[in-house]
Amino acid sequence: MSLRKYSVSRTPQRTLPQFTHPLVAASEPAFGSPQVKFAIRPLRRAELPTDTVALAKFLVGKVIVRELPTARLSGRIVETEAYPPKDPAAHHFRGQTPRNRSMFLRRGHAYVYFTYGNHFMLNVTAELPGVGGGVLIRALQPLAGIEYMQRRRATIRIRDLARGPGRLAQALEIDRGLDGIDLCAPGPLWLGTLKPIASSDPATASAANELLGISTRIGITRAADRHLRFYQRNSPYVSGPTRLNV
Predict the structure, then answer these.
(1) Residues 146 and 8 sit within 8 Å (Cβ to Cβ)
(2) Rounded to an integer, what distance in angstroms lies between the CA atom of residue 151 and that of residue 101?
(3) CA distance 110 to 135
(4) What is the dihedral of CA 90, 96, 97, 101, to 10 degrees?
(5) CB 181 within 8 A of CB 191
(6) Alpha carbons 169 and 10: distance in angstroms, whole number
(7) Where are the alpha helices (DSSP H) in the chain?
(8) Closest CA to 63 of 173, 207, 239
């Protein structure tokens, strides 16, 4: 399978197209001027662990790609949360329903739900068919399609484009229409692995070479003491309070 190549600038463009929403003025320095060249190889289902916690760890450093008619967006996953079988904090805890049935698909499918009357959340199914389990994708480091994400999010602050699951879904134009799709097949949303071609920027290094942080999950009340949140240490794109990101 051939690699899909990209070339993006780490420096945000200050002259942007007209937006539907006004932009928030930038208050952070440029990220640097060198071109970052990389390729993304689609992940095969056989590469995904058949275990929710293992998959949550595995996905840190992998890539989400969103294919749109006028843009291709991508971001490197820097934060996840595991919701394994029999987890009282998970949507699947009380069994399958029309709303959560995608969580019971075999690993590597999307489960998208709407929460707080405001936000969509993207999850990756993680178990064998018929077993409920999912990994919430909490944050991304934007890689490509950044101007499109800026329009969607009404900000040019790259750090804030996909830092948190609601922002992530808004930036990548993810909604319930993507619920249940196969993330290991060609389509509007898929999983990949990042292969740098040439870069002097350490932020593009594989998460395998980074320290993996572990903490309790965010915003839940049941099983709140379980350490099932995983994140890339020292990443400015990780969400949550500072006390959890040490």
Answers:
(1) yes
(2) 32
(3) 10
(4) 90
(5) no
(6) 22
(7) 52-59, 146-153, 165-171
(8) 207
Q: At a CB cut-off of 8 Å and minimum separation 6, what does 67 contact?
A: 187, 188, 189, 190
Backbone angles phi, psi at 202, to 5 degrees: -65, -15
C-alpha–C-alpha distance, residues 78 and 183, integer Å = 18
Over the stretch 153-187, which tens digit does the pLDDT of each residue have? 999 999 999 999 999 999 999 999 999 999 999 99
The number of beta carbons lying within 10 Å of the beta carbon of residue 4 is: 17
State the average pLDDT for the chain: 81
- pLDDT-derived band at 221 (thresholds 50, 70, 90) equals confident
Torsion of CA 111, 114, 120, 124, to 10 degrees: -10
Amino acid, res. 89: A
Least confident interval from 22-31, 96-105, 192-201, 208-217: 22-31
SS3 55: helix
| Pairing verdict, β 72-83 and 229-232 | antiparallel
Token pair in block for residue 158? 């790259």
Q: Which amino acid is at 148?
A: Y
Q: What is the C-alpha separation between 181 and 170, in angstroms, rounded?
A: 18
pLDDT for the residue numbered 117: 72
